[in-house]
Amino acid sequence: MNLDPATGREMGRWPLAACEDPHPFLGPLVPAAAGLRVFFGRGPAEATRDLMLLEAAVP
After folding, report:
1. Which of 59, 3, 53, 50 is nearest to 33 (CA)?
2. pTM (2 decimals)?
3. CA nearest 24: which of 50, 6, 4?
4. Which helix (H) or strand (E) holds 25?
5. How far apart are CA 53 and CA 36, in angstroms?
6. How far is CA 40 from the centre of its chain?
């Protein structure tokens, strides 16, 4: 979800299909030259985390 920092209102929403889980663990977000790097895990029982790169889609 993208929020307007001045008002706190939602500006957009982009679901991440690869990260669907009833209890997702996401973060921290780390800026990279190509986008944002993020760690993702599937709930508290999953000990491993995947390092993903989030990139803006160009229509």
Report:
1. 53
2. 0.61
3. 50
4. strand 24-32
5. 6
6. 8
| pLDDT (tens digit per residue) in 8-56 | 999 887 777 777 888 888 889 899 888 889 999 988 888 899 999 888 7
**CB environment 17-47: b (16+ within 10 A), e (fewer):** eebeeeeeeeeeeeeeeeeeebebbbeeeee
DSSP state of 18: G
Q: Which runs of consecutive H residues, i.e. helices, occur in 4-50?
A: none
> Which 8-state DSSP code applies to residue 7?
T
